Fold this sequence. Notes:
homodimer; alpha/beta; Rossmann fold; Uridine Diphospho-n-acetylenolpyruvylglucosamine Reductase, domain 3; 2 domains; five-stranded antiparallel beta sheet; 14 helices; 15% strand; nucleotide-binding (chains A, B)
Amino acid sequence: MQKGIDTELFLYIKKYKLILPGEQILLAFSGGGDSLYLLYLLKELQKHIAFSLEAMHVHHGIRGEKAERDLQFSENKAKEWGIPFTSVRVDVPAFSSENGLGLEEAGRILRYEALEKRRAEWEAKTGVLTKIALAQHMDDQAETVIHNLLRGSGISGLSGMKREEGHRIRPLLSIRKQDIIGRLHVLSLQYMEDESNEDLQFTRNYIRNSLIPAMEKVNTRAVQHLSKEAELMNELELYLEKKAADFLQCFGTEEEGKIAISISNLKEEPAFLRREIYRMAVRRLQGEIRDLSGSHLYALDSLIFAGSGKRTELPKGYIGEIRNKVLYLRKRDGKVLDL
Amino acid sequence: MQKGIDTELFLYIKKYKLILPGEQILLAFSGGGDSLYLLYLLKELQKHIAFSLEAMHVHHGIRGEKAERDLQFSENKAKEWGIPFTSVRVDVPAFSSENGLGLEEAGRILRYEALEKRRAEWEAKTGVLTKIALAQHMDDQAETVIHNLLRGSGISGLSGMKREEGHRIRPLLSIRKQDIIGRLHVLSLQYMEDESNEDLQFTRNYIRNSLIPAMEKVNTRAVQHLSKEAELMNELELYLEKKAADFLQCFGTEEEGKIAISISNLKEEPAFLRREIYRMAVRRLQGEIRDLSGSHLYALDSLIFAGSGKRTELPKGYIGEIRNKVLYLRKRDGKVLDL
Lengths: 339, 339
């Protein structure tokens, strides 16, 4: 593997403005090959763009000695390269059993929490825009798309992981795992084996080790195509979000934590856009939509074909309710709002 | 399997108005399980809806005795049930070698040609709307979606086969193969084994026999979910087609086989919608878009970022050309049209 992919990625980062001069980048650094290459890449990129870089290692409290070794390796590597380093210890097994979550899911939540916390601290301290850089690559993207596809999770699922999503950036989404490994080999960079390949839940590993290779038998560029479909779906999702925002602008009234939407106008839009409109309305009311499921959206949508007085429960004590040909989204105990 | 699926399908056919009273339905009848069940279903449906039904068998000229046996079986079954029957012999091997096509692709083309020809004749003779009924089911749909997904064929690929597409209807798209087989068993209906499972090209069989079962290990409802994604993509496709038509209405000028589109307005739309706009413009010019490939669409799209005078070739002697911030689609030797 040539130096080519470094340059390709510099151009990618530049094209999509993933990192701009002056910004602070917090890299999630496990010590595995992907994040080691990203650390190397960003270190090299600092020669071209003036930004601050810090590597952060989250110690999961699982796999005993190996986890200590990963932490030690990460710290040493950062020190060797003169890159500021922080680490934090989280108790994944405890969090997992307390919340009835699988180890993978629990680890993911705690890892992101720790990264977000450090990001906010760093940003607050300096007042400079701070982003989290994640090392997910095209193969990870393909796995995510397939996983979501088989769950039937619609457009947002098919759009997979985003290149840029809030404070998070994923500069490696455009390259294959094998290109990363090849480049690390050329650079003679040792890295920690990611043992999670064995530990992780069945599904993800099965997709990675059986399903994707089987798909590549059908089409050798299957992973690239899946990744391209994800980009297309992502564009589509942004387009539909804009259409939903335009719709709410025209046909929705927002006041004091309540939103009223005209049903006759809703009915003129296709079902997938209506669901996007509900999603956006709830996000405006609640600030986020983490607890909003597909079934909430379908329930809201069936409301608009039901009679006046019908209602459905939404997360966080909100409801959707029909009155006089208007769909109201509001707190359960709040007053309705006239359109 | 209960009589349930017959009723479910009656409702499905009714809901989507696939067959209306008075219409003529030409069923593609291979003698295999799927089309035998569809023949049975439509025969039963005639008790509720008054429409004409004819079964047509296309003899492929391959697999010697077995093909004769399939034809005989089909004819006998139609006779037994009192359903008008026609058959036609096509020479798939000859067509295949003359056109450098695989047997499957050649068979598909000749089969559809024969069906379309008979459909047109029947319609012309009676002056009554005539449709072709095809027996593809949900498992076929899932295979198509996966095949297209791995080829990276975008929204129209992911939308798979359509429930209704021009004169063609696919009443079985909402049910699983296993439900059809189960129902045939309960009805004690014998059918011809579809030997194409062995003869067909590698890809399709591999998807059917290896990939789909592997996907069902990840999610037991994978086939249903793929089919649902296809429906969603289909809705999306229709929505985008409408948006493209609206756009051409506002920002395109059509005259004497030429179309002119304002570039500044094109640039305000997302890339996937621009491609839909080009596709629609070419369809308006040429009546169809069979020869229009994705690379034509991408070439047209890069034109709008190029300078005046740049052009690109399109199928059937057409070109796309930029002049004075306008994109012209026209015959290569035609005059340009002012916007």
